Amino acid sequence: MQVLSGFVERADISELLNRLKICDEYDKLEFEKMFELASEIARPKAIYLEGYIEDRGEDFVVINGVKFTSRILKKNLEKADRIFPYIATCGTELDSIKFSDDFIKQYWWDSIKTCYLNIARENLMEYIKKRFMLKKTSTMVPGGSEPGLWPIEQQKELFSLFGDVERLIGVKLTESCLMIPNKSVSGILFPVEKDFNGCKVCRRKNCSGRSAEFDEVLWRSLEIEASLRIKK
Ligand code: SF4
Asked: What pTM did the predictor assign?
């Protein structure tokens, strides 16, 4: 399991001003003040782990000892042996500030939070792909009430893979399985095609699908390369 934070990238104010259609000079000044505050305090974070599919049934998979029941999840993970559960968040620092008495400002603030969530998620995805030599990947997120989908209630199982997520990255799960901060996402990243190079950077023991030995030197060099956009 690894926590990623200290992303070098910052939100882009011009893109936000355009997207939110803020043209009025007074509004621009107000937004700029808000943006500066956000830039100072924002600490987006992400966490992931290597998960191994230990068992499969008609409508379930077992990942690191935890059973997930969903036909579509089972189907999508058919070709994967190693997958990457993750959670990314804008961070509690941004979430602790509210503009409850001002609807527009709250909307602007939420848009800034979304930018920082995207920074956490995109950096996380890029990091995992580099670190584990993944080519084509896809993601699945819990949610949806249709039979066969991956029910939102299985956020509980997903969170249980990590232990105390609130202590690790500040994300809490409510009784109804929503995440706090509201600008947080969780899911599973998985390779969609067999790429045997990945075995060189996989420490799974006793894998019947292994096609190459674990390569410690390659593993270390990828760790350095993948960390370039993250401050220590
Ligand atoms: S050893 Fe290779 S096939 Fe087995 S889980 Fe790791 S990457 Fe997948």
From this structure: 0.91
